[in-house]
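Input structure tokens:
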């Protein structure tokens, strides 16, 4: 007769062998699942919107923005001249003796006229510059779409010229 302790140890050894066999099967399955989860194609397939949002965000953050053209050197020169003229006029007003109230208002009036005329001239020049750019882009677009060149072009505010 086999003692109960021997039966227990034999049963325990069999159980340990089953656990080892099952452990190998389970570990192989776990390795297979881990490889699937680490595969980027599987992840994208399971979470397409998350991946799309992440790609769009990274693209927005990493791609450099289109540089805007720098300030026009002529406009910058005009602004610098205006600034110098204003500073010179203000210095003259501060340092000159006050002879009469009319002198002060004449200087301010002259300065205002000069500044407004310069700003108007530069504003018109910039408007012409941007208008020409718009017209050139419009013509290029018409040519790229196979349209023949027309002498009339739409005006941004409506109507025809």
């Amino acid at each position: 007769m086999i003692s109960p302790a021997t039966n227990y140890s034999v049963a325990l050894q069999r159980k340990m062998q089953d656990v080892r066999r099952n452990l190998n099967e389970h570990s192989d399955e776990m390795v297979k699942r881990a490889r699937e989860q680490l595969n980027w194609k599987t992840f994208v397939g399971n979470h397409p919107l998350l991946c799309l949002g992440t790609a769009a965000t990274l693209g927005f953050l990493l791609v450099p923005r289109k540089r805007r053209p720098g300030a026009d050197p002529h406009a910058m020169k005009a602004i610098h001249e205006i600034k110098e003229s204003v500073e010179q006029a203000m210095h003259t007003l501060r340092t000159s003796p006050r002879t009469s109230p009319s002198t002060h208002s004449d200087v301010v009036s002259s300065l205002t006229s000069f500044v407004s005329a310069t700003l108007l001239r530069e504003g018109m020049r910039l408007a012409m510059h941007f208008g020409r750019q718009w017209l050139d882009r419009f013509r290029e677009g018409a040519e790229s779409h196979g349209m023949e060149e027309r002498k009339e072009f739409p005006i941004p505010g409506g109507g025809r010229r």
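The chain has a mean pLDDT of 77. Residues 73-144 form one domain.
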